[in-house]
C-alpha cells in the first residue's frame, strides 16, 4: 500500500512539474536587452519583408550595439490581434512598441496606454510631419503615435475591359452615387457582379470613407465637435443608406462579400466589375496581378452630388508606431522609431517603392524626396492620390467604436432586412444620443481644441 | 395488447431502479490507508480545479468590482459593472446574446438528442461489422475543432459557388444567404454544431442502449408491444439518467457555442449568432474596462448554473442529488 501511495505521489509531482516547466523556455539574446515590437500581418507580404529587414539592419547599427539592446519583431495574425494584445497588456507582457492604426490612439492615450513620443524623439521629427497628419496625431500638444504611412479610402477601382464591354467610357468612372448605381446595373451579369461592397464585420470603419464626405456634418463625423450630440437623421445619410440598399436589393453586389475589404481579389479575378478599396489595393494589383494592371481604372470615391474636385472623398487611414505606457526601455524605443520612421528618408522611399506607391508619406521631407524620385513621379496612381485625394482626406474619427458599430448595424437593417430608411435613421439618432449620455462622452473629444 | 399489460412491463423495467433507490444506504467505512490513497488520487484533480476554476473565479469576482485599467490603475466601483451589464449602456447587447444562447439551446438540443437516439437505435439493430464503420464515421467530426468545422461549413454555405446553393440552383431554386440573413444564419450555425457533436451523443446513447437488459424487450414482445411502445415504455425510461447527462451537457455546450459562429458568420447577420461567449469575446477585445468583462462572465456563469438547476428540478432527476 505504501509503495502504491508513494508511486502515485511521485507521479503527481512529476506531472505537475512537467506542466509547470512546459511554460519555461529561454531565448538567446547574447546578453542584450530585447525590446519587443508587435505588428499585424498585413495582407501585403512586402510590408512584412521590409519591416523585418529594417529591424535586422537596425540591430546591426552602432546605436543598438553600443546601447546593448536589440529589437525583437513579432508578427501577430490580424484576426488574433485584439485579444493577443489585450491579454499581454493584462499580464504585463505587452510589447514595448506597437504598430497601430491612427483611429484608436487618441482615446487610448488619454487612458495611459502610450507614452508621449515627444519625450523620446527629436523635435525635428514632429515639425517634419505634414500639417494634416500632425493635426490627427497631436493630442493636447503631445504625439502618442509616430506615422509610418498614410492610406486613404475609399477609392473606386474598376475593370476597363468590363466598361468597354457594356459601352461605358473606360477612362471615365462614375462621379455621383446615382451614377455608381447606374454603372453597377449596366455591369451586372450572371457570372459577374456590378460592384463589390464592404462586408459586415468591416462596415463600421469602411463607412468612415463615406461619412467623411458629409459637408453638412456638424463637425466630427456623426457627432458634433464636443461629442455632446449625434446627428444622422439627415438627407446625406438618407441618400447613403438608400444607395446601399439599392445595391443589395437589386443584387448588384454579392449578398455576402467575396473577400475582406482589405483585399482587391474579387476585382482582380473578374468576379466584380467595380470595387471600393483603399490605396493599398493598387499595391496588391501591382505585386500579385501585374498582368491586369493596364486594365485597372480608378476614380475618387463618388459623392452625393457628383462634385469631386477639391472635395473630401476619403478618410485618412494608415499605421504608425506607439510606445507602450508601461514600456521599460522608452529611450531605446524612441531611438528605434526615430531611426526607422523619423530619420533618413531613404528608408520610407524604399518602403513606398516596395509597395508600388500604394502607401503615402506622412512627412514633408519624405514627400519631397518622393517628388524628386523619378519612379514615384512617373507613377500615375501615386500622382492621382497625391493630387486629388490626400490634400482633402479627413482623419478617422476618434470616438468609441460603438458609435461606428451602431451606424453599421443600422445600415445592415436596411440592406439585409429591408427596413425603411427614415425610421431606421430616426432610431439610430436616438440610440447614438443615448449612448453618448450613458458613456458620458460630452466634452471628451481629445481633438476639440 | 392492452394498455394495462404495457404498464406492467413498464413497472418491471423500472423496478430494479426503484428498489435500488429505496434500499437503505449503508455507510461504508474506509480503512485509513484506503482513504489516503483516495485523497492522493484526488489531489491532481483538486489542484487543477483550484488553479483553473476556483482561483480564477475568486479573482474574477474581485476584479468585477473595479474599473480595471492596465495603465492608470484600478478604481473600486462597487457594483457599477453589473449595473452597466444588466441595466446600463451595454445591457441590450448582453440580453441579446443571452437570447441567442437560448435560441441555440432550443434548436440544437432537441435536434441532436432525437437524431442521436434514432441513429443509436439503428446502429444497435444492424450488422456489428457495418455498425463499427458507421460508429467511426459518425464519431470522426467530434475530433475536429470548432474552428475547422466552421471553415468546412463556410465553404458549403458560400453564397456564390457553395455546395448548398449549387444544389438549390440545380433544382431551379434561388440561392439562400445562409450566413448573412439572420434567420438562416442561426440555423446554419446550429446545423454545423449538431454535425460536430452528433457522434459523441450517439455513442453515449449507444452505450445506454447496450446496458438495457434484453429480457425487458423479450417480455414486452411476448405481451405484444410494438416498436413504439417498447421505445416509450422501456428504452426511454431506462435511458433517463444518460439522457439527463446529455441534456445538461448539450444545454451548456449550446449556450456556450462560439467558435463555429465566429468562423461561419463572424459579426455579420445583424449579430444574430452572437451568443454569450461571443459577447464576452467582443467585450474583452473592445472594452476599455476589463471589470465589465469579469462581471459579464460571472453573470453568464450564474445563468448557466440556473439553467442546469431548472432542468434538474423540472425532470426531478436523481442525478440532482449528486
CATH homologous superfamily placement of the largest domain in chain A: Periplasmic binding protein-like II
Low-confidence stretches of chain B: 1-18
Report the C-alpha radius of gyration of chain A, rounded. 25 Å
CATH class of the domain at 90-286 in chain B: Mainly Alpha
Task: Estimate nothing, just give the exact number of structural domains of chain A.
Answer: 2
Number of helices of chain A: 21
Class by alpha and beta content of chain A: alpha/beta
Query: What is the helix content of chain B?
Result: over 70%
* Main structural class of chain B: mainly alpha
Quote the average pLDDT of chain A: 91
How many strands appear in the DSSP assignment of chain B? 2
End-to-end Cα distance of chain A, whole Å, is: 78 Å
CATH architectural category of the domain at 90-286 in chain B: Orthogonal Bundle
Give the assembly state of these chains: heterodimer
Under CATH, the homologous superfamily of the domain at 90-286 in chain B reads MetI-like
Give the CATH topology of the largest domain in chain A.
Answer: D-Maltodextrin-Binding Protein, domain 2
Q: What does this protein look like?
A:
The complex is a heterodimer of chains A (449) and B (322). The mean pLDDT of chain A is 91. In chain A, strand 8 and strand 9 (223-224) form a beta hairpin. Helices cover 45% and strands 16% of the residues of chain A. In chain A, helix 2 runs antiparallel to helix 16, helix 9 runs parallel beside helix 12 and helix 20 (401-415) runs antiparallel to helix 21. Chain A has helices at 2-22, 45-59, 62-66, 81-90, 105-110, 123-127, 131-137, 160-165, 177-187, 200-206, 208-211, 235-249, 265-268, 280-288, 330-342, 345-354, 364-371, 374-377, 380-389, 401-415, 421-438, and strands spanning 33-40, 69-76, 97-101, 138-139, 142-143, 146-159, 193-196, 219-220, 223-224, 272-278, 296-300, 315-323, 394-395. Chain A contains 21 helices and 13 strands. Chain A folds into 2 domains: 33-151 and 316-395, D-Maltodextrin-Binding Protein, domain 2 (3-Layer(aba) Sandwich), CATH 3.40.190.10; 153-313, D-Maltodextrin-Binding Protein, domain 2. Chain A is an alpha/beta fold and 449 residues long. The radius of gyration of chain A is 25 Å and the shape is globular. In chain B, strands 1-2 form a two-stranded antiparallel sheet. In chain B, helix 6 (146-157) crosses helix 8 (182-211). In chain B, a hairpin with a 7-residue loop joins strand 1 (66-67) and strand 2 (75-76). Chain B has 14 helices and 2 strands. The relative contact order of chain B is 0.14. Chain B has a domain at 90-286: MetI-like fold. By secondary structure, chain B is mainly α. The interface between A and B is large, with 40 and 35 residues.
